């Protein structure tokens, strides 16, 4: 009988990504103010507060929206912090629980001026009212639609988890592009940079392909970085166990397989840009800012993954340098 591996080696995605890393000067300010916003009137104490500080969402926001003015950056950080909060909630929910949260959130987005007693509804209305003050109608619509897709997909994820289903790779990729929550964050690139790009441009196949390539890199690399924590909890909604099951690979081979897919998504992102048509000077300039925002997400998320304590605890810097991950033991139901 083959013994379980004790460690695995991460692919070198940081070196493969040659985009320049930027960071907003407003990082400290948004971190402090979002913290007050998140904890306002809440009983988050002890481990929940420690989790927030270890998350370092303000750093992720500052690196992914580096050119945003302070009010826009602050809203983006509120949303990202809230999205991680929702993700933590959905990890512990069945499909009925995710549906009830989805109902509150989506009602808050579609009817932002109606009072909601639920805290998650109040938070949703609060950031969305600020967003619609300056966001273009197209980016507002894309934000709501893609957030709706997010909830549909996490509901399906909850059903799969309850049934112990490991989907095939193609089905998993389609679902993961929505469970990642990246698509609403792409709408926030438009908002953060005060862009008003016509719908027909945003719907162009090459522009969609660029968003998809960025989503794939952020999402698949996240599956690699989060695998250790997730396997310790027995969670199989991750590309690595999907690939192990479908391709019959051991852990390291599956990590390498997904790592190659990540590198190909970066290459795909660069290649797609060479085929962009022109829509005239103004639209082309705005679109270049949007595509630059996708590149900021690619490079920012890669570096942030080693700064946050979400995946490697306080050992992120060491893991970034060595790329060696020691496998955590499986948790028992009581731990």
Automatic annotation (TrEMBL):
**Top-rank EC class of the record's enzyme:** lyase
List the InterPro entries hit by this protein, alphabetically: Isoprenoid_synthase_dom_sf, Terpene_cyclase-like_2
Q: Which GO terms describe its biological process?
A: isoprenoid biosynthetic process
The protein's UniProt keywords, in alphabetical order, are: Lyase, Magnesium, Metal-binding
Write the Enzyme Commission number(s) for this entry.
Answer: 4.2.3.-
Does the keyword Metal-binding belong to this entry?
A: yes
Keyword Zinc-finger on entry? no
Question: Which cofactors is this protein said to need?
Answer: Mg(2+)
**GO MF:** metal ion binding; terpene synthase activity
The similarity comment for this entry is: Belongs to the terpene synthase family.
Q: What is this protein called?
A: Terpene synthase
- Organism whose genome encodes this protein: Candolleomyces aberdarensis
